[in-house]
Write a structure and sequence with these properties.
With 233 residues, the protein is an alpha/beta fold. It folds into two domains: 118 residues, Response regulator (Rossmann fold); 96 residues, Arc Repressor Mutant, subunit A, CATH 1.10.10. It contains eight helices and eleven strands. The strands form three sheets. It has a five-stranded parallel sheet, sandwiched between helices. It has a four-stranded antiparallel sheet with strand order 6-7-8-9, covered by helices on one side. α6 crosses α8. The model has no long low-confidence stretch (mean pLDDT 87).
Length: 233
């Protein structure tokens, strides 16, 4: 793997612990990234309003404007990839972060090398703006990989890049059951050893809210208990 692969890509590291920022930045700079360090949420929002970035590493627990508020603000305006940093006891906040559109999360204490690897993985995935494949049509549901567009009865459905990737992956193999580990491997390009399988659960729930007539009794994204999920055409 070439360390110059992402040379020039910018990463914003937002954490109120100087040591965390310093260590993370050192690993990313070694890999060719341009890194900006910020210690609080409000300053991060001000920075982003003036200077877009390619990826954000964002601590949940920040003084003043916390990480979830920053994430919500970012998602209302852009699809910039966001990796959350969270303490081990903040499971509820991690789940909320995924629901708000975070692309990944890392639990403290963490390996800086692992975090740098996740940054590269997320950027590879999100930088691929075109999916190979044909348009998928299922009654009133259309999934267009070229336009990265989903429509229900002609109405455009607003999905995050990750939600689109997940839906397209499942819909490309109708009725085939995939475990959460398989979905992590194919959609997140991440081993379940690194990524919590609940990530898939959260994104399936969000997708159901967007494409199902009754998210509580889904007809498209079906749970196969004890196994995983399948898409019903």
């Amino acid at each position: 793997m070439s360390l110059t692969e992402f040379s020039g890509n910018s990463v914003l590291v937002v954490d109120d612990e100087p040591m965390v920022r310093e260590v993370v930045s050192a690993y990313l700079i070694r890999d060719g990234f341009s890194v900006t360090e910020i210690g609080d949420g409000q300053e991060a929002l001000e920075h982003l309003s003036e200077r877009p970035t390619d990826l954000i590493i964002l601590d949940i627990m920040l003084p003043g404007t916390d990480g979830l508020a920053v994430l919500s603000h970012v998602r209302s305006r852009t699809d910039t990839p966001v990796i959350l940093l969270s303490a081990r006891g903040e499971e509820v906040d991690r789940v909320l972060g995924l629901e708000l559109g975070a692309d990944d999360y890392v639990v403290k204490p963490f390996s800086p090398r692992e975090l740098a690897t996740r940054v590269r993985t997320v950027l590879r995935r999100t930088s691929n703006t075109q999916h190979q494949g044909r348009r998928l049509d299922f009654d009133n549901l259309t999934i267009d990989p070229g336009l990265r567009e989903v429509r229900i009865s002609g109405r455009a459905v607003d999905l995050t890049p990750k939600e689109f990737d997940l839906l397209f992956f499942l819909a490309s193999s109708p009725r085939q059951v995939f475990s959460r580990g398989q979905i992590l491997d194919h959609v997140w390009n991440s081993s379940s050893d690194w990524q919590d399988p609940s990530t898939v659960t959260v994104h399936i729930r969000r997708l159901r809210q967007r494409i199902e007539d009754d998210p509580g009794s889904p007809k498209r994204l079906v749970t196969v208990w004890g196994v995983g999920y399948r898409f019903e055409p």
